[in-house]
Amino acid sequence: MILLFLFLIHWYFSLFCQSFFLHRYAAHQMFIMSKFWEKFFYVFTWIAQGSSYLSPRAYAILHRMHHAYSDTPDDPHSPHHTENLFTMMWKTKKIYNEHFTFKVKPEERFSKDVPDWNRFDRFADTMGIRIGWVLVYVSIYVLSISVFELAGTHWWMYFLLPIHFMMGPVHGAIVNWSGHKYGYANFNNNDQSKNSLFLDFLMLGELFQNNHHRLPKRVNFAVKWFEFDPTYPLIKLLHASGIIKMKTLQ
């Protein structure tokens, strides 16, 4: 089942980069790392996200806005102020592009100290590079299914390709929609953030949104005894190895 294995590898590596590097590092600065490792994770995120690469700078600005305006009309991606999942994604894309292209100047509290490697972002965002990643994914599927007819591959697996193409936005849409509509709340945060426990194994801790909105600087998104944040042990491992330095151990 090589293609399903490939899909899972792409899913979880892309998601880890979004959770670890874009979210917990770029947006919240929960830990520090050297410039060498910062650039390493820029490149690693590009490889993991491929055609759906998200700029750490633009992502961090939008996410800080999300916390400041959670579930209000000014929230860049609240499911409670958009008609459906697709209009929410389109609104997010529009605001993201405004900040990525520097057409809009954010408030200092949203842009202060965010990582910014603009030259690399512009390279990764070029249409030719994104199409190149798309062709890589398509080629792997065509060779596996139609040319070599590898065991365990089936024609229906071609339907996985659109998720490969849009992996980053797909993860963001799941977290922003489900994490503010479905589940339970440990805290009253004056918003609609929820902990979607039964979906979180797919999202590496990102769906403990209620906990995270209450404790935005806490590295471990799990709070209750029955909650588990899979990204947290990986962050502790990176801390123990000296690659990063956590500001707090929780």
Automatic annotation (TrEMBL):
CDD domains for the chain:
Delta9-FADS-like
Check the record and name the InterPro entries matching this protein. Answer: Acyl-CoA_DS, FA_desaturase_dom
Q: Which residues form the signal peptide?
A: none
Where is this protein found? Membrane
Give UniProt keywords alphabetically.
Fatty acid biosynthesis, Fatty acid metabolism, Iron, Lipid biosynthesis, Lipid metabolism, Membrane, Oxidoreductase, Transmembrane, Transmembrane helix
Q: Which domain of life is it from?
A: Bacteria
Q: Where is the Fatty acid desaturase domain?
A: 3-235
Topology of this chain in the membrane: Multi-pass membrane protein
Main localisation: membrane
TM ranges are 127-148, 154-175
Q: Does the keyword GTP-binding apply?
A: no
One Pfam family recorded for the sequence: FA_desaturase
Chain coiled-coil ranges: none
The answer to keyword Transmembrane helix applying to this record is yes
What's the family?
Belongs to the fatty acid desaturase type 2 family.
Output this protein's name: Acyl-CoA desaturase
Native organism? Cyclobacterium plantarum
